[in-house]
Structures are given as structure tokens and as C-alpha cells.
Amino acid sequence: MAQVGRLSDPCGHADIWTFLADITVKGKVLEPLADLCGSTRRDLLKSLREILEDRDALALLGETLDRVTHGEYERPQTEVVASFMDQLDVSKVSKHLIEAVDLLISALDGKYHLVSKITVRV
After folding, report:
1. Distance of CA 48 to CAs 9, 23, 59, Å?
2. What is the per-residue pLDDT for 49?
3. Around 14, how many Cα atoms within 13 Å sit in the side-chain half-sphere?
4. Does pLDDT of 93 surpass 70?
5. Phi, psi torsion values for 6, nearest 5 degrees
6. Number of separate domains in the chain
7. Parent domain of 64
8. Which of 46, 79, 98, 107 has its CA 20 to 30 A from that of 6?
9. Helix axes 95-108, 16-34, angle to 10 degrees
């Protein structure tokens, strides 16, 4: 008989409450994306859709964001990733927004198994 409140999850959560707490924390990290103005959010999502068509570009974007968080930004050679970073305007963007985008990219790249399908409303 299954225990109430227990689940088996690939992220290693022991129970549903730990799982929900983890999602809540990750949800808070994503909040700066909601604070972007509508046109900026739409432009970023449009570029992200293009990046999703190329797994190598997605991985490069993740690596680029990691470098940005360490203060080591170098313009990517791939045009689609460079365009995304230009739209993000890394010279002016907050660390919290970079972390939000990095979490989103990590989820899409399979590092975090948060969702199997993402629906974005802008």
C-alpha cells in the first residue's frame, strides 16, 4: 500500500512536501522574468524558441549565462545566442534576472526536471 505524501521523483525528493518546497523556491527565482516589460519578454521568448531548435545553441546559452554570473562574459560566436544575450543586455541586467534565465535554460536543457512541457503566456 502506497504511503500518503510520499513520491518517487528523479530529483531525489523524499516526499511531496520537499518537492513542493523545491518548486516554490525555484518559482521565486523565476519571478524577475515576470517583471520584464511585455515587449522585452516577448523578444526573449522568441529568441529562446529559435535556440530550442538547436541543442548545441541551448547548451552554449547555458554556458554563457554561467560565465556571466562569474563576471566572465564574452560575446558568443553563435548568432542566435549572441542575439539573445543582446536582448537580455547583460551589461545592465540584474544578477537575479540572470539567475532566473539560467534556471529556465537549465530546466529546458534537462538539468532540472521541473516540467515536461512549458506553456508561456505573454
Report:
1. 28, 22, 12
2. 86
3. 1
4. yes
5. -105, 145
6. 1
7. 16-108
8. 107
9. 120
Report the candidate in 34, 46, 120, 59 with the shortest Cα–Cα distance to residue 87: 46
CB atoms within 10 A of CB 98: 18
Using the structure block, give the residue that is written with the C-alpha cell 524558441: 49
72 CB neighbour count, 10 Å cutoff = 9
CB atoms under 10 Å from CB of 36, counted, come to 19
Residue 118 lies in a domain: no
User: Is 117 within a domain?
Assistant: no
Residues in the chain: 122
Interval 9-54: pLDDT, tens = 555 556 777 777 877 888 888 899 888 888 988 998 889 888 988 8
pLDDT bracket for residue 80 (50, 70, 90): very high
**CA atoms of 122 and 83, how far apart (whole Å):** 20
